[in-house]
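Class, discuss our next protein.
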Amino acid sequence: MIDIKLIREDPDRIKAGMKAKQVDCDELIDRILELDGQRKELLGQTETLKAQQNKVSKQIPAMKKAGEDTAPVFKQMSEIKAKIASLDDELKKIVDEYQNDLLCLPNMPDADLVPGGKENNEPIRYFGEPKKFDFEPKNHVDLCTSLGMIDYERGVRMAGNGFWIYRGIGARLEWALLNYFIETHLADGYEMIMPPLMLEYQCGLTAGQFPKFADEVYKIGNPTDEGRVHYMLPTAESALASFYRGEILTEADLPKKFFSYTPCFRREAGSYRSDERGMIRGHQFNKVEMFQYTLPEKSDEAFEELVKKAETLVKGLGLHFRTVKLAAGDCSASMARTYDIEIHIPSMGGYKEVSSVSNARDYQARRGNMRVRRADKSIQFVHTLNGSGLATSRVLPAIVEQNQLKDGSVVVPEVLRKYLGGLEVISK
């Protein structure tokens, strides 16, 4: 969440930041300030009454010793106690509304981001050139089907639209990609984490996905405990952002560099447009996620590191892609800045995101109360960053489309061959 001090000091700046993100939060920010004022006023009244209560209670021993009637004093204390209880109830309602409004406020975009939506996204670099074919290229759905790599029909029959089945060499290629990503992250000194795939609500709240986007995540009830609900992991970020929830790290602990392989589950799988057939959008897909906890002054450096790592993975596959700096309005609610690594899908005539690298600054840390004790004993909120490294459901289509041959076979990227027994070409 955003520091309330920033909202108090310069609400117009916060409102302008929200407008840059294409979110109208003027009324929400005004209400937060109003509730903040009511909260402080009620706290002041409560503290005054408690001080009065203490002062009155100290009179009782002397009155008893002097043989004075203490009944009026006890009556006064009872009245004060009732007023305090009433104020506490009112304060709880105010604080609950105040906290909920703060949690609904998106993160501020970094000052250098262009305002507006995806139409203002800026490609900042390209790797390689779009593949040129001297034959009529096929799309990944036809290629994967003819090569026996993916069974789309039975996937839909089993689970509905937005699902598919990897089989044979397709399953092995998917596993090869995951192994390539994992080995690379391990070599770079990242710690591998295998989190639960069902999370409690607080994880989504800390990551900034809840409360606003709770309806976009699969919800699982517990038949033996009707009051308990879990949420299927939409991305490993949801888990990793809560790894140190409620903890205070030391300066020497940071940075913490993690990665996780998980399947991811999303309700909002897309519109199934004709150009998004196959594996481009789905309810379940595999992803390796990178995550860092850093000191505030190191988060820009960490961001560049994560971007470079994601780019290096795609470069290693020899695929054409570009890196795009997102406009403020295309960054997710909880992120201050995001670069997308977008891979070229020839049949679509364009690019699709395979990695989003984002810096949340201290937004998630405030929501999860994750802090660091500095060498001078002061305590600050940490910064959190995340980036896909990578999601496979668009990498595999890019591989088969960019590496296809005239006879419908597909050249295996060199870095993956060792995981496939040296196989160089996938053919019928």
